[in-house]
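S1.2 Input.
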Amino acid sequence: MKRIILTLGLAARIAVRVAAGGDDARVKKITAQFRNPLFPETKVQFQGWKIEEGKVYYRVIDKETGKPYLNNGLFVYE
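S1.3 Output.
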């Protein structure tokens, strides 16, 4: 369970850096669904889509298989 929570933390850091200009004070909400167990050797990829100003949908998938680890993610910022 720790690994998937760390994955959420990593996804949040990426979203803050890319969408909120690195300013974590701008973060209002971050959510996601945990979909599958994650193992240490797994290579993952963050995918995000800016839907409108202040809102990004994202997911974290297995880089090789496309299997989701975090899905239906929502990052909201000012």
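S1.4 Remarks. The two ends are 30 Å apart (CA to CA).
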